[in-house]
Amino acid sequence: MSVFRRVRDITVATLNERLEQSQDPVRLIDQFLIETRQEIAEAEKLHHQYAGHTKQLKHQVDQATTMRNKREEQALLALKAGEEHLAKLALQEKMLYDEKIEQYSELYTQSLESLQELENQLHELKTEYQVVYSKRQYYYARMETLRLQQRMNQRMSGYGMQDVPKMFNRLEDRVSDMEWEARSLRDLRKAGQDFVNQAGSVIQSTLEQELSRLKQKLNNKGEE
């Protein structure tokens, strides 16, 4: 059983499954990393507390062992001195320390096992964090590649080769219209000039005819 409460909504066991369903894997991984950092911080805090508690239990065992050995030596000295009553008192106190050693040794062993378990879990959490962080870098690179590809596709969507003939067809039509307009204007000007020339010729002919008529009239008067 874990010695501390898990705080993550996402674990490595469920991360892969969620990644397959996620539209934004980087965001999901970031959530996992945040929760894992919180759990690592909690585990480190608990590890510190467990280490202090284990150290205190070890101190109690060592202290009781020292006192038990001391009382046993005192009992031996009392027996050698013929002080059996004092020897019994020392042995009674030694027995109390024996009981304390047994009790605290059991607590110390349990605490030491929990501390080791916590260290293993903390190591596992840090390993998970590093592995998933590496995955995060990989998925971030993939998402960035996809984003840039989409932007490139958007920019290139209006510049396909199939649009080149259409573009030149429109240009050809426009140039043809301009050429037609220029030819029409030139033809109109030419027609106007021809009309002027023709009109001038008609006027000149009429003048010559009038001039001849007047000359003929003068000749006729002269003959009279």
Structure description:
Keywords: Coiled coil. This is PspA/IM30 family protein. This protein has 224 residues and is mainly α. The protein folds into two domains: 12-162, Helix Hairpins (Orthogonal Bundle), CATH 1.10.287; 166-223. It is 89% helix and 0% strand. The chain contains four helices and no strands. Helix 2 packs antiparallel against helix 3 (84-156). The mean pLDDT is 80.
Distance between the termini: 157 Å
CATH architecture of the largest domain: Orthogonal Bundle
Number of helices: 4
What's the number of structural domains?
2
Q: Which keywords apply here?
A:
PspA/IM30 family protein, Helix Hairpins, 224 residues, PspA_VIPP1, 2 domains, coiled coil, 89% helix
Summarize the structure in short.
The chain is mostly helical. The protein has 4 helices and no strands.
Fold topology:
Layout: H1 12-21, H2 25-80, H3 84-156, H4 163-223
Helix pairs in contact: 1-2, 2-3
